[in-house]
Specification:
Strand content of chain B: 15-25%
Number of helices of chain A: 14
Radius of gyration of chain A: 24 Å
Number of helices of chain B: 17
Helix content of chain B: 25-40%
Largest interface: A-B, 65 and 60 residues
Shape of chain B: globular
Number of strands of chain A: 0
Number of strands of chain B: 21
Distance between the termini of chain A: 9 Å
Largest sheet of chain B: 7 strands, mixed
Order of helices and strands of chain A: HHHHHHHHHHHHHH
Distance between the termini of chain B: 45 Å
Strand content of chain A: under 5%
Structural class of chain A: mainly alpha
Oligomer: heterodimer
Largest sheet of chain A: none
Shape of chain A: globular
Strand order of the largest sheet of chain B: 8-9-10-1-11-19-12
Helix content of chain A: over 70%
Chain lengths: ~300, ~500
């Protein structure tokens, strides 16, 4: 099977996944208690007015009819309108998506180089003080709660030193870089230790492998062996972990988005859940599923490039 | 470690370069609130964030000045007929943001759609209106079902703003308010990013010449209260709504920030479900009320920034009875009232999942336990809370409400009148005498006599413990001293058009 065929097959696998997600997310939001119409219209809306709007939105129909309508629209590429905002869900998601993707990309730009440097340092000096120091940093980074770290970084770098804005997203590319630095750093601080621990372990494992001893016996320089063989062979497990984490960041950057008031997908999801905005919740769930599958596919393709033995 | 610290320094230096390259675009007023704008149609929501927005977009026929008294708005004058049932309003020369003239037809259209649209969120302010007619392009005649003292004041309520009939008919109800509505108020919408911010620019055709005094504003939605405070301190916000009480003193002590604690029509109280035992029993309600030391609760909840509530009506409303002694704190009396009546099963205290509600619920639970009233706290999100309370699926529910105008009529209809549609804020309190007094007070044009009727209403509902009044908080809004003229009126409206940035 050629690579193109393999990719196509993987994309076809998406279909049952999306059908499953659609059914589950639809049932979950519809069966959970709480009325979006009451929340949208405010405390003092009369029961009659609420009933009228519920009927307008089709909430008085039997559940299977509501599902049929939803799926019918979905098949035509229509995610429906937000109940709260009365505007199309697709536009709402696409409007805030760049911020979350920017943030995820920013986190990667900070985390990947840092991971490689720290893991290589730790592995090459295994057991020495530098390894211990990196281990302490890792434990601290993984255990400090992100919301606390976020608040502390904002207060210190934002309020005391005034180096970075404490909230928002900015207008231009440079402003995005400036505004999102603290959110990206807060995320990187828990992400990097995870990746460092993982990469360090694989590096140590590979450094003791037979082929390394064989290379040494051929007289190859240590640096060359490390870069050309050890590092590449160790990267695969960490790459897969990173893929899972990127998918998680796209869907789950809720806490940093809230602490730093970055109106991205995470805060859209929180608002939608609290406001019972059914269509937005379902639209976002589908989007997350799609993003997860695509990220995993990208990681698998990258794996085949790094290691020709791996097949899609 | 060296490499790491070098990397950090390099990143920080890079970021500082970026910050140095930015222009300071400090010409719009940024207001940060936890309450979202979810619609731009004044008829379709009465939720807190939208109320604040509608006031900036749509001018009303009358307006309130800084001291709260009514003055002409889009109507430059009005006349009330001798029988009190016909109001004739004369419009001033004014234009919508698209340059078209605001006519009597627009006024009639705007008022009738709030009263009549089946999905109108809050038609109560205009329920006494029998008919509205345009006599000529500048004159509107409104006939009332009965004599109704609060009517002119109700024309100032947030959802009675004037919208363009021609535009709504041309673009349709949905499209006309989708993103760029034609406005009659001080501002127009520059951009609306749902879940993020509403950017406003001055409406060049606004009838108050010289207003707004600023180049525009942004209403920014930030749900986390700590983030809002951080934005205030950092200068990212010119005003923030809802500072946590624990941080008020800290903000007040900072240079360049003021927290004036403006009076509000908010009342914190606990709903009691009169439809089922034990709170269907007056003695149990009175016992529950006497068990609570409202002074201590007020102090604990608001760090002493609020006043203990003495009646069932908000303290900032007209005709609030300051002489009413309130319900005395009397745990011994509460115990004897309860003797033999305390339920075996614990009461359900239903709250929304937020720290303030939780603190309040814990305080109530502890004080009720002292007199032998056991309870359990159920925390739900606001979606579930609003599902259960209207259905009467609770025993007690500490929460708050406010009134959108200083006149108490709408407050009564919402919270104390059993025949006015909301079952006395879903407590199921229904006293025929109160229902009668509500109508009588609204129809009374003599201020002294009205005051007496509202005094009676407060006396009866407080002694019958329709709800347990707890405290009257001011608004905990913080303002940058770089902005002058900005405040929030008791009826939840920013005086944004008067605000100026001083350099």
């Amino acid at each position: 099977m050629s690579r193109a065929q393999a990719i196509l097959m993987r994309l076809l696998h998406l279909i049952p996944v999306l059908i499953g997600i659609t059914v589950v997310s639809f049932l979950l939001v519809k069966l959970s208690p709480g009325d979006p119409v009451r929340l949208m219209m405010g405390d003092r809306a009369t029961e009659e007015a609420i009933a009228v709007v519920r009927a307008q939105l089709g909430f008085d129909l039997p559940l299977w009819q509501q599902f049929a309508l939803y799926v019918g629209n979905l098949l035509q590429g229509d995610l429906g309108d937000s109940i709260r905002y009365r505007i199309p869900v697709a536009g709402l998601i696409l409007g805030v998506m760049p911020r979350t993707l920017f943030l995820a990309g920013y986190v990667l730009c900070l985390a990947v180089p840092l991971t490689i440097i720290l893991a290589v340092l730790a592995a090459r000096h295994a057991g020495r003080w530098i390894d211990q120091a990196i281990r302490v940093f890792s434990v601290v980074g993984m255990t400090v709660p992100v919301f606390w770290l976020g608040v502390m970084l904002a207060r210190f770098f934002g309020l005391e030193l005034k180096w970075f804005p404490v909230a928002g997203y900015g207008e231009t590319f440079l402003e995005h870089l400036h505004h999102l630095f603290l959110p990206a750093l807060s995320t990187a601080i828990w992400l990097v230790p995870l990746l460092v621990r993982n990469l360090r372990a694989s590096l140590l494992e590979q450094m003791g492998a037979d082929y390394v001893t064989a290379s040494r016996s051929k007289g190859l320089p240590e640096g060359y062996i490390f870069r050309r063989h050890v590092l590449v062979n160790s990267a695969l497990p960490t790459l897969h972990l990173l893929g899972v984490m990127v998918a998680f960041l796209i869907g789950g950057s809720v806490i940093v988005e809230i602490v730093y008031a970055v109106p991205g997908l995470g805060s859209l999801m929180i608002g939608a859940v609290l406001g019972r905005d059914y269509n937005v919740i379902q639209g976002l769930t589908l989007f997350y599923a799609l993003a997860t599958v695509l990220v995993t596919l990208t990681v698998d393709i990258l794996s085949t490039l790094l290691d020709p033995r791996v097949k899609l | 470690m060296n490499i790491r610290s070098k990397l950090y320094s390099a990143l920080l230096a890079g970021a500082m370069l970026v910050s140095a390259g930015q222009a300071s675009a400090d010409d719009v007023i940024r207001i940060v609130s936890g309450y979202p704008t979810t619609t731009l149609d004044p008829a379709r929501s009465a939720a807190a964030g939208n109320i604040e927005t509608f006031g900036q977009l749509y001018a009303r026929l009358v307006r309130r000045n800084a001291d709260g008294s009514l003055e002409p708005g889009l109507a430059e004058s009005w006349k009330i007929s001798d029988d009190g049932k016909t109001v004739t309003l004369t419009l001033r020369d004014a234009k919508f943001s698209d340059g078209s003239t605001i006519t009597a037809d627009d006024v009639v259209f705007s008022l009738l759609r709030v009263r009549d649209l089946p999905d109108s969120a809050y038609s109560a302010p205009l329920q006494q209106m029998a008919d509205a007619k345009a006599l000529d392009p500048k004159t509107v005649s409104i006939t009332l079902k009965t004599v109704f003292a609060p009517f002119i004041g109700n024309l100032e309520v947030f959802n009675t703003g004037i919208v363009s009939k021609a535009d709504v008919e041309k673009r349709g109800e949905k499209e006309a308010f989708a993103g760029a509505p034609v406005t009659s108020g001080p501002y127009m919408v520059k951009a609306w990013k749902p879940n993020d911010r509403l950017s406003l620019v001055p409406n060049p055709n606004y009838w108050r010449t010289g207003y707004p005094k600023n180049d525009g504003a942004e209403l920014i939605e930030v749900g986390d209260e700590n983030t809002r405070v951080t934005m205030m301190i950092s200068g990212d916000a010119h005003a923030v709504r809802g500072v946590p009480w624990s941080q008020v003193a800290d903000l007040q002590s900072r240079e360049g920030i003021s927290v004036p604690l403006e009076p509000s029509t908010v009342i914190f109280m606990t709903l009691l479900n009169h439809a089922r035992a034990p709170f269907s029993d007056l003695n149990v309600r009175q016992a529950a009320a006497r068990a609570i030391d409202t002074k201590a609760v007020t102090k604990a909840m608001t760090f002493g920034h609020a006043l203990p509530a003495n009646t069932t009506l908000p303290g900032a409303l007209d005709f609030h009875d300051k002489s009413n002694p309130g319900i005395a704190y009397d745990p011994a009396g509460a115990k004897s009232l309860l003797s033999g009546k305390a339920p075996a099963d614990p009461l359900v205290i239903l709250i929304t999942d937020n720290p303030e509600a939780e603190r309040l619920a814990v305080l109530l639970q502890a004080q009720w336990a002292v007199v032998g009233l056991n309870s359990k706290i159920e925390k739900v999100d606001s979606g579930v809370w609003w599902d259960r309370v209207p259905k009467g699926d609770y025993d007690a529910a500490p929460t708050w409400w406010y009134n959108e105008t200083p006149d108490p009529d709408l407050a009564l209809r919402w919270a104390l009148c059993g025949s006015c549609g909301s079952k006395s804020f879903y407590t199921n309190y229904n006293n025929a005498k109160i229902n009668e007094l509500t109508e009588a007070a609204a129809a009374e044009l003599d201020t002294a006599k009205r005051a007496e009727l509202y005094r009676q209403i407060q006396e009866i509902t407080t002694s019958e413990v329709s709800q347990i009044p707890l405290y009257y908080p001011p608004y905990a809004n913080a303002y940058s001293k770089r902005v002058t003229g900005l405040m929030m009126t008791p009826s939840l409206q920013w005086t944004l058009e008067d605000a100026e940035i001083v350099q």
